[in-house]
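Bit of a strange request maybe. I'm writing a small parser for C-alpha cell strings and I need a real example to test against, not something I typed by hand. Could someone generate the C-alpha cells for this chain?
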Amino acid sequence: MPFFKLLKKTDHFTWTPEAQEAFEDFKKYLTSPPVLDSPSPNEPLLLYVSATEQVVSTVLVVEREENGHAQLVQRSVYFVSEVLGESKLKYPQVQKLLYGVLITGDRAGVVLISPNDEKFKYVLYIHFPASHNVAEYEALLHGLRLAISLGIRQLLVRGDSQLVVNQVMNEWTCADENMQAYRQEVRKLEYKFEGLELVHILRHKNEAADELANLGSKWLQVPTDIFVKHLTKPTVEKKDKPKPTPSEAGDAGDNGQPPNSDDRTVAVITDDWRTPFINFLTEEVLPTDKAEAKRVSRRSYCYIVSDGELLRRSASGILMRCVLPDEGKRILQSVHSGLCGNHASAKMIVGKAYRQGFFWPTVVTDVQELVRKCERCQFFARQTHVPAQELQTIPISWPFAVWGLDIVGRFKRAPGGFTHLFVAIDKFTKWIEAKPVATIDSAHAKDFIQNIIYHFGIPNRIITDNGRQFISGVFHDFCEERGIKICYTSVAHPKSNGQVKRANGMILQGIKTRVFDRLHPYAGRWVQMLPLALWALHTSVSRSTGTIALLPCVRSRGSPAHRNRPRIISHTELQRVHGRHG
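Reply from user aminoacidic:
Good idea to test on real output. This should exercise your parser:
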C-alpha cells in the first residue's frame, strides 16, 4: 500500500524505507509474473481469499500432478483484486472475506420485452472464470433459447457489447477460437427464427439488463418476478487443438528430436468448402448441422460435378472451376501484381479472376485485403473527396415548412437574466424569429419551437446543429410526437445550415448599431433593441426572394387570431397598399 499512499495529494513528499522495499518487491514481481492456466471440464477448483485493511484479493487454483514433484502442484486459473473504497473500508474482516468471494463470480441479465411492453426478466449467475465477452455471449445464447421455448418467431436483440453484436452480424471477424465457437452456436439457433436481428445500443440505454446484471453481481435477494439460472460450466466448450497424425510424428528424427530447420515443413490443414457440395450433388448427403445443411441445399443449384471436380455456373452460363482459398489468393496476386498485372482496383481484379474461370466463396474479401495491404496501391491511391455522409436536400416547397435553428450568445447579462438568443429562420420566406433566454436547455428550445407552431403551424422539418439542447431526449420526443423531422448538420460541413448563420449576423448587426452609445454605454439594452432589429428585418426586401415576409399593419375584420398574420407580399403589392392608405 505505500504506492497508493503516494498517489494522494500531499504537500510533503517523503520516500520512506517502506516505499523502497515495496518498490523492490514490485520490480521482482514484474520480472517473474505468474502465468494463468486453463481449467479442464469438471476439474475441482480451490479458492484462496486474502483481505487486508484496504485490499481484497482472490485466486482460483487447480491441483495437478506434474513430473518432478512428489505432491500435487497448484496452478492459478483466475485472479481478481480490488482496492476498497471509503465505505468498504468499514467492513469487518469477515465481511471483507465474504466480499472477496462475491467478486470472484460473474453474472449477466436478460430482459425479453413483448410488443405490448410486457417484460420477462432473467438473471444468469456464472460460476466459472469468464471474460466479459464470454458473459455477453452466454447471456445472448440463453436469451435466444428462452425466446425459442416461448415460441417467439421474430426477435430484435439489443445489446451494449459492440464486439458480440458486430461478430454475430458478420461485420467483424473472430480472431479468437473461443469467440468463433460461440458465434457458431448462435448460428445454430438462428434458423429457428423467422426474423432475428442484433442491434448495438449504448450502455445507458440498456438500463433494464444492467440492473439485473448488477443485482446478480451483488448477490442480493432476487425479487419473485425475476427468474434465476445458475451456470456452472460454459455452454460452448473450447476447441482442442488437433493432435499430430502418425505421419507427422514420423517426421521427427530417430532420436525423437525435430529435424533440422532447413528440412522442416509446416502443414496447414483447412476444411475444403467444396466437399459438402460434392457430397450432396453426388450422394445426396447433407451436413449434420441443420443451418449448414440448409445453406448447402439452397446454393447447390449453381454447382455441378464433372469428373469429380466441382464447377460453378456463372450468370452468363460459363462454368468456373472451384478452387481453394489459398490457390485463389495466388491467382489474385498474379492478376494484381504479376507480369501482366496493373495494380487495378478490387472490382476489376475479381472480374478478371471470374473471366479466367476461377471461383471461391471468399474472393471479394480476399481481394479487398490484398489491395488494402499493397503498399504501392496505397501510396498512389486517388484521394477521396466524397462527403462522409450522404447529402440531404432541403425541400422548401411551401412557406414555413423548413426552419433553420441556432443559438446566438453569450451576451452581456440583461435585466431578467437573459444571456442568449434562440434564432430560427424559415427557409422559404426568410422570416426570422428570435427569443431571449436565460439558460440554453432543451426545455427552452421546446418552448421556442412551440411558439413557432402556434404562429405558423407545424413544420415539416427542422435543420440544426449538434448542440446538446437539440439532441436531448426531451427535444427529440417533442418533435417526434408532432411529426417533425430533425436534420442535424455535419460537423465537417456546418454551411448546410448557413441561412440561420446569416440571420444571426443580421440580428447582431441590428442590435449592435442600436446599443452603441459613447455617452451612455449600456450593453444590457440588447433585449430592448431586439424587437426593433427584428421589425427592421421583417420589413426589408430579401435579396434572394425580392419580397418581404410581413404585410404592414393593415387591420381587417375577423377573429383576432387572423389579424396581422404574416404572409408573403411582393414589392408591387406593398406599393398598392401604401397607395390605398396613403
